[in-house]
Write a structure and sequence with these properties.
Chain lengths: ~110, ~260
């Protein structure tokens, strides 16, 4: 199958709707209502759960959704370095910059 | 007050957004390069960066185009990938109360994982953080993301990129966010549980739907355990605070208990 520019445009337009719907509908729904306390208590745990899930996907799950146990050793080691730096410095910029340096060096070594 | 202390609003928000903008630059370049390789022209690359505005989604579009997947399949996969935004929106909604529809529309259009992460942290720790500040952070990240995608598309195949290294910028950003979130032993436990569940459900569903399921289950577990433990054993070790080496209590008590 060969794509035309129109196909690409169609992907952008349809992509917009599937990306926008999940972002907009809950915000619209919950911002105009009284949110029950239990819901807020539950949502409090959403960020940490989602961020951990994303990190696990980045490090341990391949593009075809298979588990990578030790194949990404450079990423695993760099992650540990980032965790330690984040814990001590509490600085996003330092953590990201050192994380990138670490992964660059480690990917050359390993 | 804030205006007088820290200068104009755009500088206040840029101060929070710049580490993200820094991470976005190489990833945006890489994304533009890949979209170019997949046949996307520069104008469409700019448009997709503005209207879809999701690194994961754009990388997936590039990858699926090179495997010549049918358009409907691409859109369906995108939908599953973007479903997690429903969770982000739900968890920010209590901070966006009283905003008009136009604001909520603008806010939703340019919300994504990374600027959400920054805004969530600011809303929780900074009482003066307003929805307008949050929207500006979104716009900074949108601007840098779109510009670097367009540049990536223009330089095209002239540059070699190591995707593993580039992608790690965002992984590092999320790792930082996790560390900042972990304030009690219970949250640490939930984070570990979420990681295990994420791997399990992603292998099971073979898609990022696993991210959504694991987040729902892990966060609900956290909520249940917190309710149960603080009622039964208010002195449980699970509720102990985790030491913060910066030494200052970053969060006011009232702010935690939103």
């Amino acid at each position: 199958m060969h794509y035309s520019v129109t196909d690409h445009l169609l992907i952008v337009i349809l992509g917009f709707f599937v990306a926008f719907g999940p972002r907009y509908i809950p915000i619209l729904f919950f911002s105009n209502r009284k949110i029950p306390d239990w819901f807020n208590d539950w949502m409090k745990y959403v960020p940490v759960s989602l961020f951990t899930a994303i990190v696990v996907k980045d490090i341990f799950i391949s593009g075809s959704y298979h588990f990578i146990s030790s194949g990404n050793l450079d990423l695993i080691l760099a992650s540990i370095i980032v965790i330690i730096i984040s814990y001590w410095t509490r600085s996003m910029a330092i953590s990201v910059v050192f994380g990138l340096i670490a992964v660059m060096l480690l990917s050359m070594l390993i | 007050m804030k205006q007088l202390e820290n200068g104009p609003q755009w500088r206040v928000t840029l101060k929070e957004a710049w580490p993200l903008c820094l991470s976005y630059t190489p990833i945006g370049l890489a994304c533009g390069i890949l979209l170019h390789a997949a046949g996307f022209n520069t104008i469409l690359t700019g448009l997709v960066s503005i209207f879809v505005f999701s690194g994961g989604a754009q990388f997936m579009i590039a990858q699926m185009l090179t495997t010549t997947a049918p358009i409907l399949t691409i859109i369906l996969m995108l939908f599953f990938l973007e479903l997690r935004y429903a969770l982000l929106g739900s968890s920010l909604a209590s901070y966006l109360k009283g905003q008009n529809h136009r604001f909520l529309f603008l806010f939703a259009v340019s919300m994504n994982d990374e600027n959400y992460a920054i805004n969530y942290l600011k809303f929780v720790t900074d009482r003066n953080w307003t929805p307008k500040d949050a929207l500006q952070v979104e716009h900074w990240s949108l601007l840098v993301w779109t510009v670097s995608n367009i540049i990536g598309s223009l330089i095209g195949s002239a540059v070699q990129i190591n995707l593993t290294v580039v992608n790690f910028a965002l992984t590092a950003l999320f790792l930082y966010m996790i560390v900042m979130q972990i304030k009690t032993r219970l949250i640490l436990l939930i984070s570990v549980v979420a990681g295990v569940l994420a791997a399990f459900f992603m292998l099971l569903t073979k898609s990022t739907l696993g991210l959504v399921i694991s987040t729902l289950v892990a966060s609900f577990l956290g909520f249940m355990i917190e309710g149960y433990v603080s009622k039964r054993w208010p002195n449980s070790h699970l509720l102990y605070k985790i030491h913060d080496p910066s030494g200052q209590p970053e969060v006011d008590k009232e702010d935690i208990e939103i």
